[in-house]
Every structure is written in C-alpha cells, then in structure tokens.
Amino acid sequence: MIKARKKSTRVKPAPQSKSHLDILDYQTIYENSPVLQRTLDKNGKILLCNNAYAKKLGYTKKEVIGKSVFAHTADKSINFLKSELKKWRKNYEVSNKEIWLKRKNGVVFPTLLNATPVYDAKGKLVGRNAALIDLTNVYRARDKIKTREEELAKQLDELKKLNLIKDEFMAMITHELKTPLAPIKGYADILLSEALGSLNATQKERLEIIRSSANSLLKLISDILDSQKIELGQLVLHKEILSLSQIIIETVDKMRPSADRKGITITKDLGSALFCSCDKIRIEQVMSNIVANALDFISKDTGKIHIKSYRAGNNAKIIIKDNGVGISKSDLEQIFVKFYQVDTKLTREHGGTGLGLSVCKGIIENHRGKIWAESEGKGKGTEVHILLPIEDISKPLPIR
C-alpha cells in the first residue's frame, strides 16, 4: 500500500521583482553618472542628488538635500527657471534648456537642462529628475571663436582700407604716367611724318621703335588704369543705342592691316538689327583686345579668325573664333583673372601682362553682359563668347 506524501508547509521566498532590480540599476547609474543629477519635488525642493552634482557646486550631499533648487541657481536664470517649473507642471517635460547654476563660492557656470517626471508606486506625479550637462568648456570655446572672429573682422577691415588706398594710389600713378607719354608719342608721329624735315632710314627705324614702345606703354598704363577703375566701381560708361554689327565692322577694319601683314584672314557673319545700349569706345576696346590676342596666337599665313553675331533670346551673342594654339581645359576658367597668363613663353614672345582679358570681363559685366572662352584643348583653337542685352528699337526707348 502506497502512503500519500504529506504536503510541504515550507513557503518559497518570492522572487525579487524586476522592477526592484531596475530601481537598483537606476540608483547605481544615477549616483555614478558624470552628468549632474538632481531630483525635485513639485515645489522645487531637492529630494536627491548625485555625487557629481554636489561636488560640482562645492557642497556635501547633506547640504544639498532639502534645499530649494533656486539656492543653486544664478540670479540671471532664476526667473527663467520659475517659468520653466510652471510650464513643467502642465506638460511634465523640459528639454534642452540652458540655465546658469551658482556654486557655493558664488561662481556661476552654464548648463544644459533636461528633466523628466518622477511617479510614485501608484502612478502619482511626485516630482522630476533633472540631468544637467556642464557647458563651461563649450562656452569657453565659443568665446574663443567669437574673439577670433572679431579679430579677423578687424583685420579684414584694415586690409580693405589698405587695398582701397593701394587701388587709389595705383589709379593716380597710372594717370600721371600716362600724361608725359602722350607728347612722346605725338612728337614721334610728327617726326615720322617728316613735317619737320626729311629722315634717313636709320632715323625712321629708331623713331618707329620709340613710337612702338610708347604705344605699348600707353596700352599697359591704360589697362592698369581701367583695371583699377573696374575694381573701385569707378568705370564710367557713356551709353548710346548703337548697332553692334557696325561697331564690329569698324573694329575689324582697324585691325585688318595688322592681320594682312601676317597673312591672317578675318571673316564675318553678322546678324542685322542687333542694337545695344553700350559705350562704343569700350565695346571696340573689348573687340580689339580679343582680335589682337587671336592675331598673336595663331600661325602666320594660315591663321583664320571668324566673327559671328546673332540674336539669342534677349541678348546679342558674339563669337570670335580662331584656329590658333587653343587653351587647355584647366586654364579656361582662369584666363579672365587679373594678371593670369596661360603660357608664359608665348607671352614673353608677344608681350602682355594678363590684364587685357580681365579688363574685357569688367567692361562686359558693366554692360550687364557675360563673357567666357571655350576650347577643345591645345592646338584646337579658341572661341570667345560675349552676351550683351538687346534694346528693342521698335518700342519707345526708356529715359536713362
């Protein structure tokens, strides 16, 4: 006969609840966190704090507990914190708010405040836990950056003033240099005309050198002066409604003798009724400069320059194409930069300072236009493109 076992009367210990373990874990994290931690009741009294909080403010934990949160708040943040506590009682959360704390010795420092609600076992709101990150190093770095920015701004202002003085000085010097060159060139022309007496071949040769050198120096000075005027915003344009095609024709006629001496052909395909509000002398200057560049960098006897103009929307487009040495892709963006020279060897052979195309760009842009260059590369020729706004002469012209 099998006897029934007696039922055990020993009570097993209840397993420790997970929530209790969570509380222990939370307390460990709370206490050892490098972030300043404090727990407040609904009225702002400190119920708990971690070691980092007490140490940072220069107190013992015993000195902190039971004190009002405002005892550790800098004067400039008290009103703000009162307002935040009032808002917190409605929505229970505070996120990324900057407040200033005050240490026991009176020193204040910035912090970033984040707060979450704390509930009792019955789910009743009893206070909030606040995490505060010390922003002292951030503020120091910010102050250093601000100081450096102020120093750089001051240096930039000084450099601008110096640059303006330099530009004004250069404009004055180039103007003064131009004055004595005019009579040198003028008297060379008179002597070469033999109005003051006949000349032998050697004398004519020397006078031609004087006249050529004077012309080169005058062009250089004019380019420098124009460049400075453009940079200073002092380029004066005398605009009229003019036929762009007629300006191109007159410019080519002036350049043709130089082209003929080199056996270079210049052809044109010009659209009609292209009228622009422009300064004739300045547009001629641009066209002459571009054609002169082409004449310098294409082969004698086989060189060709073709100038085309047509309407492109509300603009007149001019393309000056040559079969010269071409330009590498890397140089295309730079050729209109002041003093930039694509090929120093060719520049030494033909002269030039790298100012001409920079001046052309300034003149075209002052006409509300655009200029750029295109080339397939070395040995494949170059195209210079110009856009200028068209004036519709069928409508009444605006009063300028």
Features:
400 residues; alpha+beta; Beta-Lactamase; Heat Shock Protein 90; 3 domains; five-stranded antiparallel sheet; five-stranded mixed sheet; 12 strands; elongated; disordered N terminus; disordered C terminus
Biggest pleated-sheet summary:
5 strands, antiparallel
> Please, how many domains?
3
Calculate Rg over CA atoms: 42 Å
CATH class of the largest domain: Alpha Beta
Approximately what portion of the residues adopt beta-strand conformation?
A: 15-25%
Structural category: alpha+beta
Q: Supply the number of helical segments.
A: 11
> CATH superfamily of the largest domain, called what?
Histidine kinase-like ATPase, C-terminal domain
Query: Any idea what the CATH architecture of the largest domain is?
Result: 2-Layer Sandwich
How are helices and strands ordered from N to C? HEEHHHEEEHHEHEEHEEHHHEE
Show unreliable segments. 1-21, 396-400
Task: Describe the strand arrangement of the main beta sheet, using strand numbers.
Answer: 2-1-5-4-3
